[in-house]
Design a protein that fits this description.
By secondary structure, the chain is mainly β. Helices cover 5% and strands 14% of the residues. The longest helix is centred in the first third of the chain and has 9 residues, at 6-14. It is elongated, with a radius of gyration of 16 Å.
Length: 191
């Protein structure tokens, strides 16, 4: 069995190897260049990915429960169906990332750049609404797409929604000010 320490994982990735379905729980890959890495369906729970460059990475269906991705670069990364429960993405760059179907419960997106990101999950029910709040406080969601999602226990205070498209989004349980949604495009028209 291959040891999954930082050095061996970085070497395997630089050799073009996929780490799909790997158990990488609690691994420290902070400050690493992991461009185009394949972590699909991998267990990265508790992983330290602070300031890692995950541009164009495949994190589809990955378990990122409790992972620290603060300051990470996730440009155009795929996180479709990923479990981001209690993950920290504060100040992360998720420009153009795909998060459709991701579980966002207690996820911290404070001051993250989510411009042109795609979020939504028509059949997902967030766990522990208002127990462990997901926050987009002061996040840049300009031109982001939110589709078919109920934002239970979501904090949107100070977020930038200019040009964001909110399709069938239920904000009845979200925490926000009307001014936070200025410039957003809803099914009813521009706010």
């Amino acid at each position: 069995m291959q040891e999954n320490n930082q050095k061996s994982v970085v070497q395997r990735l630089s050799d073009g190897e996929s780490l799909s379905n790997e158990n990488l729980e609690n691994i420290d890959l902070s400050n690493q260049t992991l461009i185009g890495a394949d972590f699909s369906s991998a267990n990265l729970s508790g992983a330290n990915l602070k300031n890692a460059d995950l541009t164009d990475a495949n994190l589809n269906d990955a378990n990122l429960t409790g992972a620290d991705l603060s300051g990470a670069t996730l440009l155009r990364s795929y996180l479709v169906g990923a479990n981001l429960t209690d993950a920290t993405l504060e100040n992360a760059n998720l420009f153009g990332a795909f998060l459709s179907g991701s579980l966002l419960s207690g996820t911290n997106f404070r001051s993250a750049d989510l411009r042109r990101a795609t979020l939504g999950c028509p059949h997902c029910v967030p766990t522990g609404a208002f127990g462990s709040l997901t926050t987009f406080e002061n996040a840049n969601l300009e031109e982001a797409i939110f589709g078919e999602i109920k934002l239970d226990g979501i904090v949107l205070l100070g977020a930038n929604f200019k040009g964001a498209y909110l399709y069938e989004v239920d904000l009845s349980e979200a925490i926000y000010r009307e001014t936070d949604l200025e410039g957003a495009i809803t099914k009813q028209g521009r706010n």
